[in-house]
Design brief:
Layout lengths: L1 H24 L2 H11 L13 E4 L5 E5 L4 E2 L9 H11 L11 H14 L9 H9 L7 H17 L2 H11 L6 E2 L1 H9 L8 H8 L14 H18 L4 H9 L14 H18 L2 H6 L4 H18 L4 E4 L3 H15 L5 E8 L4 E6 L24 H13 L6 E3 L20 E3 H6 L3 H11 L1 H8 L27 H8 L7 E2 L5 E5 L5 E3 L6 E2 L3 H17 L13 E6 L5 E7 L3 E8 L13 H14 L2
Parallel strand pairs: 1-5, 3-4
Antiparallel strand pairs: 1-2, 5-11, 6-7, 6-16, 8-9, 10-13, 11-12, 14-15, 15-16
Helix pairs in contact: 1-2, 1-4, 3-9, 3-10, 5-6, 5-7, 8-9, 9-10, 10-11, 12-14, 15-22, 16-18, 16-19, 16-21
């Protein structure tokens, strides 16, 4: 009685469904009304979130960015034959014959399920499953099923069978936050789909049928059982021989779970920050932000953030200038020099010949996406700002050279009376000596002679994002700024000394492309003249003396013509050193995240850290 009732239900359902589908796929006069129906079910372009990738200078992937669903996308021509056949043989044997819905499969599934008294076989085509994955929910309702059929028909009109199969294989879910077959191959086996054995391929193909039931990590026995069923189906369709199917069934499957990689989190975090800047410039957000205020600026910022998210989930490839060997050396130096000390630090290495960021450490034992001190910490630069704000402008305006004299005796401007480090006031000294010994009173006299506004006009050439009119006071000559500067900003400014007085902003990103290699974004190279070549050459001589006979003696690596300048803020809150040789400009900062006086044993750490890095760079 139960069986007869079941077959009666099949007959009634098939009759109703056939009437509906005849209207969809049948005679031409009926198709007009179906097209009219489709006007209310416009599907648009499928948006498939996919991972983006960051590459170092050698072309190696250093970070896989999963900003939406974790998905490695493969084009149809790159999907292995066995992968395609595993799904075609089990999910939709007539995929290349039907128009989105397979009537014979519907009838067959109903018969099998009624006879079994449970759902043993599905009737959804690959097209229908793709529609569910990309456009609809998995809600069980007649309305959703009807919409699914309509969408499936439209998808078949808009895209080739090969493209729909590509959408399907990249959109199916493999449990544990994994979407798409290629992603599953890397996660569960640590290799690409083209490197999988037949046993591994069919094992993974088992998961999407019921991801929680066939979870490879917790229900491996279930997965193995379905894998064997898939191999039988592939044998039936002729996709594999019986011998190969039997061999794959007998082959043990060993998982090798591999998490998404991020080899250099300090650097890649900055790359994401720079990508936001690049998109902001190229798509007009930065210009709009300049003229906005209050809520409007916040709205533009939110819009930009959404755009960055959109770009990162579109599967872009970000090529960078990272030198992996230098990065490893720099992060190791920071960890080594600050190990066990009550403080933190950061370091940056730039290639000033190419204006590229080669290495960047955000702090000791840096963890991904935590506070990055190289570009997110804004601190008082101390005397490290003197060559840029005091000596450069003064010498450029007055045609002075390093042998000219300046008074380093006591000096007050109104009630502001800075002291020299150590308390000495030597009187008349050369500009070279004044910079090398970092005499504050000498710097104040030069700054006053040039004038505050004139001196600050030189800083406009650089990328100091938080320097503004509030900093236009005499304490700035000694590095006293209201909101400070970042280590990366300061180090980038120091590249001017190696480029004949011209400034080019150093970048990490070479270019951003789509999956086909089309360039989407890249920086325009711009150069700004800061001061004359003569002034620049004098400054280089003077900064050499900082290392040979001045406050930077402890940073001297003993090899190469290194030049630079120290910086120390009041009460030893911040310690800086920025310098350069014939190829690299590097800067370091040491301090506490919550500004406080550094212990005595930390007060030379910036020199030791910089020396450690410079010694390694001397051999490059």
């Amino acid at each position: 009685m139960r069986m007869s009732a079941g077959y009666l239900c099949i007959a009634l359902f098939m009759a109703v469904f056939a009437v509906f589908l005849l209207g969809a796929f049948g005679e031409e006069n009926k198709a007009v009304s179906f097209e009219q129906t489709l006007e209310d079910t416009e599907i648009g372009d499928p948006s498939i979130e996919r991972n983006s990738y960051i590459y170092d200078e050698t072309g190696r992937v250093i970070s896989e960015l999963s900003k939406g669903l974790n998905r490695r996308y493969l084009d149809i021509e790159d999907i292995p034959y066995s992968v395609k056949q595993a799904f075609l043989s089990t999910e939709d044997r007539h995929f290349f014959e039907h128009k989105g819905v397979d009537m014979s499969a519907v009838a067959r599934a109903l018969a099998v399920n009624v006879q079994a008294g449970s759902i043993e076989e599905g009737a959804s085509t690959i097209t229908q499953q793709t529609v569910r994955n990309l456009f609809l929910t998995h809600e069980q309702s007649y309305n959703r099923k009807l919409t699914e059929v309509l969408y499936s028909y439209q998808l078949e009109q808009d895209y080739s069978k090969e493209k729909i199969l590509e959408f399907y294989i990249n959109s199916i879910y493999f449990q544990n936050g994994i979407y798409g077959f290629e992603t599953a191959a890397h996660f569960y086996f640590g290799k690409s789909s083209r490197e999988l054995t037949l046993a591994e391929t069919t094992f993974l193909a088992a998961v999407p049928a019921n991801p929680s039931h066939y979870d490879p990590l917790t229900k491996k026995a279930n997965t193995k059982k379905r894998q064997e069923w898939i191999l039988t189906k592939m044998q039936e369709t002729g996709a594999v021989s019986k011998a190969r199917a039997d061999e794959a069934k007998e082959t043990p499957v060993k998982l090798h779970v591999t998490e998404t990689q991020n080899l250099h989190p300090d650097y890649t975090f900055y790359v994401e920050h720079e990508l936001k800047q690049l998109i902001g410039v190229k798509e007009g957000f930065a210009r709009r932000m300049e003229n906005a205020g209050g809520k409007e600026k916040a709205d533009i910022e939110a819009e930009l953030q959404n755009r960055v998210q959109e770009v990162l989930t579109s599967g872009v490839h970000i090529e960078t200038s990272l030198n992996p060997d230098l990065q490893n050396e720099v992060t190791a130096s920071v960890n080594r020099q600050l190990r066990g000390k009550n403080g933190n630090g950061a370091a940056v290495v730039l290639d000033h010949r190419t204006s590229r960021i080669k290495a960047l450490s955000g702090g000791k034992n840096y963890e991904p996406y935590t506070f990055n001190r190289a570009f997110q910490a804004y601190r008082q630069p101390g005397s490290a700002m003197k060559p840029l704000l005091v000596y450069g402008p003064y010498m450029d305006q007055n045609g002075a050279d390093r042998q000219n004299y300046v008074d380093a005796g006591r000096y007050c401007i109104h009630d502001y009376c800075p002291a020299n480090a150590g308390g000495g006031y030597p009187g008349q000294v050369t500009l070279k000596t004044a910079l090398a010994r970092s005499y504050n009173t000498a710097a104040m006299r030069l700054f006053e002679t040039t004038g505050i506004q004139q001196s600050f006009s030189y800083l406009e050439s650089f990328d100091f994002s938080r320097v503004d009119a509030d900093d236009h006071h005499y304490a700035a000559a000694l590095g006293g700024f209201s909101r400070g500067v970042s280590l990366l900003e300061l180090t980038k400014a120091y590249t001017t000394f190696s480029n004949n007085g011209d400034y080019r902003s150093a970048r990490a990103i070479e270019k951003v492309t789509d999956s086909k290699g089309k360039v989407l974004y890249e920086w325009e190279e711009t150069s700004r003249s800061v001061w004359s070549e003569q002034t620049n050459q004098e400054l280089r001589h003077m900064m050499r003396s900082v290392i040979t006979e001045g406050t930077g003696r402890g940073a001297d690596p003993g090899t190469g013509e290194w030049r630079g300048k120290t910086g120390t803020t009041n009460s030893y809150h911040d310690l800086w050193f920025a310098g350069y040789n014939n190829r690299y400009t590097t800067g370091v900062w040491v301090g506490k995240d919550n500004p406080a006086t550094l212990e005595t044993e930390l007060r030379s750490t910036h020199l030791e850290l910089w020396k450690d890095i410079a010694e390694g760079l001397s051999n490059k």
